[in-house]
Amino acid sequence: MRHLKKMKNGFSLSQIKFLASQLVLALECLHENKFVHRDLKPENVLIDDEGYIRLADFGLAKDLTEGAGKGSCGTLEYMAPEIINSAKGHNFEVDWWTLGVLMYELFYGKTPFIGESRQDIIENTTNKEPEFPELPKEGASKNFKNFKSLVSKLLKKDPEKRLGHSKRNQGAKKVKCHAFFKSINWEQILERSYEAPYKYRKDC
């Protein structure tokens, strides 16, 4: 296996959709078992020799049966605003935020709230909206519009307005119903019957 980080060279939207759909299922499983990961990033996503992902590093995961998460934890560029403002506490929604950051990074090659200093990143994360410049590889396609819509909804500052928020822990169902995933057969993803839309290189 290798880290997703080593594959970062600008993914197509079809590749991002394939990867993100697996992450949605992984987070759904975690959340159904009352755990929140809190550190989703390329370094913690492993790719096997068939191109399928394994979510790794549960060192910051928290069992939410004990109550909402407290404190600031994770990797700053991927932290949700409610983790940065740690006094408010946080819930499952922080994982949907990090999914949005990761999808943005895979497409643009950088995180959406990057800054020159730690304080810049904090300021951008809590106050700035993500920008979505059109790239030649996708242009103004419908798929790009759906990608922009999904990531924008995952990156809502208010966790109660963020796609994936659910008082009954049904957030993954809402994410799976977004138009970006319309072409995905979730059972086939679970069964690993899709062929990965990228080539695996053992020398990576």
UniProtKB/TrEMBL annotation:
Q: Cite the entry's keywords alphabetically.
A: ATP-binding, Kinase, Nucleotide-binding, Serine/threonine-protein kinase, Signal, Transferase
Q: Which Pfam families match?
A: Pkinase
The residue range of the signal peptide is 1-26
Q: Is the keyword ATP-binding in the record?
A: yes
The record's GO CC annotations read: cAMP-dependent protein kinase complex
A single MF term (Gene Ontology): ATP binding
The keyword ATP-binding is assigned to this record: yes
- List the SUPFAM superfamilies: Protein kinase-like (PK-like) (SSF56112)
Positions of the Protein kinase domain: 1-181
What the entry lists under InterPro entries is as follows: Kinase-like_dom_sf, Prot_kinase_dom, Ser/Thr_kinase_AS
Q: List the protein's name.
A: Protein kinase domain-containing protein
Give the species.
Answer: Euplotes harpa
Recall the taxonomic lineage recorded for the source organism: Eukaryota, Sar, Alveolata, Ciliophora, Intramacronucleata
